[in-house]
Amino acid sequence: MKAKGTSQHIILSSFEDEYEETNDPVWAWHAIDFCSTWQRKTGEVLPYPQWVTDYLSLVADAMLKLDDRESDVGGQISQLIGIRDKAISTSIQTIRDRVIYFKIKSLINQGNERADAITSIAQAFSLNRDVVDNIYRIFAGRG
Fold it and tell me: What are the CB-based long-range contacts (under 8 Å, 24+) for 88-96?
């Protein structure tokens, strides 16, 4: 997905980037949750991006083919949709880091020096400045 410039599209684009990079379906579920939450909070419909719709179509097809005579249908479904505890905690950390990166970029785009933007965001997130600087460098290097 090409980021369209609005915060919601930038966030969805970052989910897609992570999905493509890691091949981890938890990112599709983050996008689904984000679109649903966006609509609930703003009243504005935020359609699922095409990559999410494609993922849901694959999952629906596979779910319809599950053998419900097996004892662990729940396990089959969990495996199918790809939700794992470790994946969720890792993705939450990555989401936080992306938010930090985009907030720094926003401050820089508003004319602030990079060092000042990093210091400001470090204070806002109650993080060590070096940690925030490292987050910025990691994500800036992906571009």
Answer: 88/26, 91/18, 91/24, 91/26, 91/27, 91/30, 94/18, 95/14, 95/30, 96/125
Residue range of the domain that includes 50: 1-83
Structure tokens at 114: 């990079």
Residues 100 and 45 placed together within one structural domain of the fold = no
Digit-coded pLDDT (tens) for 50-62: 999 998 988 888 8
Same domain, residue pair 102 and 72: no
Last residue of a domain, one of 83, 102, 127: 83
Kindly state whether residues 91 and 69 are assigned to the same domain: no
Write out pLDDT tens, residues 60-119.
888 787 766 666 666 667 666 665 555 555 556 677 787 888 889 889 999 999 999 999
Encoded amino acid at 106, one letter = S
Q: Give yes or no: residues 71 and 100 share one domain.
A: no
> What is the value of pTM for the model shown?
0.54
Structural domain total, the chain: 2
